[in-house]
Design goal:
homodimer, 365 residues, alpha+beta, Ribosomal Protein S8, Chain: A, domain 1, 16% strand, globular
Chain lengths: 365, 365
Amino acid sequence: MADNVMVDYEILKSFCVEVYRKCGITPEDAELAAAVLTSADLRGIASHGVARLRRYVNGLKTGLMLPDAESRILRETGSTLVVDAAGGMGAPISVRTMAQIIDKAETNGAAFGCVCNSNHFGIAGFYAQMAAENDMIGIAMTNTAALGVPTFGRHVMFGTNPLAFCAPAGEEKSFLLDMSTTVVSRGKIEVYAACGKALPHNWAVDRSGRSATDAGKILDDMFHRYGGGILPLGGEGELFGGYKGYGLAVMVDILCAVLCGAPFGPDICDTEFSSARVSHFFGAIKIDSFRSPGEFRKDMDKMLRQLRDSEPADGCERVYVAGQKEYENEERNRRCGVPLALTTYDNLLSIAAEYQLAPMPILNI
Amino acid sequence: MADNVMVDYEILKSFCVEVYRKCGITPEDAELAAAVLTSADLRGIASHGVARLRRYVNGLKTGLMLPDAESRILRETGSTLVVDAAGGMGAPISVRTMAQIIDKAETNGAAFGCVCNSNHFGIAGFYAQMAAENDMIGIAMTNTAALGVPTFGRHVMFGTNPLAFCAPAGEEKSFLLDMSTTVVSRGKIEVYAACGKALPHNWAVDRSGRSATDAGKILDDMFHRYGGGILPLGGEGELFGGYKGYGLAVMVDILCAVLCGAPFGPDICDTEFSSARVSHFFGAIKIDSFRSPGEFRKDMDKMLRQLRDSEPADGCERVYVAGQKEYENEERNRRCGVPLALTTYDNLLSIAAEYQLAPMPILNI
């Protein structure tokens, strides 16, 4: 990876804490926001990591994200919570809301919550995993700016709307599914556009609503809402189940937004400088209400091993389980350093200069 | 549709009630089982309707489904329920369990339950919809005999594992997503095999784990577990997100089976005569805990209309929302009669003869 540099994880995280503090975020929130952001780099999900720090900083500068937002609870029962993030950063309020939901689920067996008027919350899996660490099944979702085109449609009508699901295991790592409900996220299209590479068919459609391969043109058309966008998981039409991904994306929008009265669908737009206000949905289901968590974990180990040990297809090396690649990345990156794209590193340098912070040292390897 | 005959819906349902009663099912359960089974035909989901009656009858005859099973509650809290179906029919115990979960959610805000040691429960959407009729969001899932191959794998390791999600609207019909988490269900492969038609690539793999098109061979290899099976939603490899469908299928297996200690993955096998014992997961989330149900329904109307009214792609007529096609089928089939494939009708005739029941009249149209 010649275009990458390696940096130490703890230094990267401390750097983000300092940047957030310079932007006016409280120490506690800066820690939470940095932990969520850099966990993405740690896991190898660079699209959701410090590559976004510039957008966060811009958001905080332009007032789209409010550093001193005072979130408030709009509605609360023993098993539910609706929180208004009041335009603050997405990650800290999401960590706190998930923690409250876990407390409620501990007492109540299951609990759910929405956060509205929030901002990009990083990787959904982070929050789902918090529940798994407490002997619960965890769920996290968010809507995003509209980028997805419905089956048979041509206009963006929903976001890439990721959902995460986490179930704890015993000796194995938790099962951690974290997926956008579109075929790909915008980040992947941007990578193809940057290389001038043609998109595979069944990823995106153009203004006419038919499968298209010009990544740059699609990004531009999507941004200006001329028509065209990313296809739902399952691709174009119905032959490969595209209506399923479309349905899942709308499901996420219902749970995140309609359930708490937040904007949804095409009403969510990114600007040139920052991401749109979005809303999230979190849930936790206590395993002990169904079965002894120890027995559950033992069966999870059996399931995950069966899957991982199943014979690979010709030409394939391994069968993975959800989360496995990211755990392997995390283990390696903690030890050997976190790889950052050169452009990302340069971006961090410019942020460092802006806030008179020491530039992050590059690891020699 | 020259290969179809039309029958009256009420007569079809009564016929099923009578057949079930002849098989030793109690009047109440026979009504529930017939309602769920024929609702599939009504909605145009023929694969899950009376085309399966012969398999149900065989299951009841051979003892794989027990007509007089005494289900019992294994664990219960204010918000959760684990039920042992004791090998009885899937539909009646599922209707009763969902009704109990709805009651619990009414008091508690949200409730979930598993049913283990059960049989084929028909269409998952039926149960999710029960919650929506009570101002709740409804969830229903089931595992099935292993037919799905993990990403990069070659052996069946999970079922077609459908999930259903239903959210009520106001003037519009409920949003009702009901989808298998594999690209297609086995029924579709059987249709291709019956016509000797080649499968599209990205539906299934052969013994080597690579995309294959010979429907008959795949069905045989899958049944005998020689290798090969149906691909997860998103298709082969990772390019189109196949790991997402794979993850969703495993998620369904965790919620249905691992959560209540039931068999999962490749341990679930169909026999030649009937379907495997399976387990289900149900959930209900009370909307009023988050927001006034009236306002929720109004926003659902807005969302569904926006989607439905969005401009179709070139060459496409309409953009649908989840459940819409099935509602339109239901409206028409209630009025004009339910279409049955000739082979299905013949099957019903032979069941009628076996139990000395009057054959169902064909509608003249």
